[in-house]
Design goal:
This protein is α/β, with parallel strands linked by helices. The chain has helices spanning about 1-5, 10-25, 75-90, 105-115, 125-130, 160-175, and strands at about 45, 55, 65-70, 95-100, 120-125, 140-145, 150-155.
């Protein structure tokens, strides 16, 4: 019995190694969202630029938009931001969700780097982020004109991601070509 006990650590190591190896082919940005195919959550939050101005999901209903979760503390958001500026210049409507951030810093950040957003929702406490199932920033949601989330991306949206994940869906629901 003592000799058999010597093999238990080896068996545990082999089993754990197999589990880890099977998970290596998974894309870490491919996080399922229960909200894809569902309505964008109801919310009632202040605008980033004017805290007296309350923003709701009704402010972008009827339009196809990207809702981009960003923050000044997010290093990857700095990498993604030029792409958002480019998409905005091409006519893609983008709504910002400033997530768990400081208002003054966020406004300065946009003044310095450009503001691709039609408007920004200020989610200082992360309540809308919780309803969306946000893991962190950046995250981007493609929302159709009926307010239905059609696609979700965790991580940076760059040219490659736009072409491989968003463009076809965007063109299909807008009836346009980018």
């Amino acid at each position: 019995m003592n000799r058999l006990a010597l093999f238990i650590p080896l068996a545990l190591f082999v089993g754990l190694s197999l589990v880890l190896l099977l998970g290596l082919d998974k894309d870490p940005t491919d996080l399922p969202s229960a909200l894809v195919g569902e309505a964008f959550p109801l919310f009632n939050l202040p605008s980033l630029k004017d805290e007296q101005n309350v923003v709701t999901e009704q402010d972008f209903n009827g339009e196809v938009v990207l809702v981009n979760v960003w923050a000044t503390w997010c290093f990857a958001c700095r990498i993604e931001h030029p792409m958002l500026n480019k998409l905005s210049e091409q006519g893609v409507k983008i709504i910002g969700l400033n997530y768990k951030d400081q208002r003054a810093g966020a406004l300065a950040w946009l003044a310095e780097r450009g503001d691709p957003y039609q408007f920004n929702i200020f989610d200082a406490k992360g309540s809308l982020g919780i309803d969306l199932g946000v893991y962190g920033a950046p995250e981007t949601y493609l929302v159709d004109a009926d307010g239905i989330i059609r696609h979700r991306r965790v991580g940076v949206v760059d040219d490659r991601v736009w072409e491989s994940e968003f463009r076809a869906i965007y063109e299909q629901i807008t009836g346009t070509e980018q």
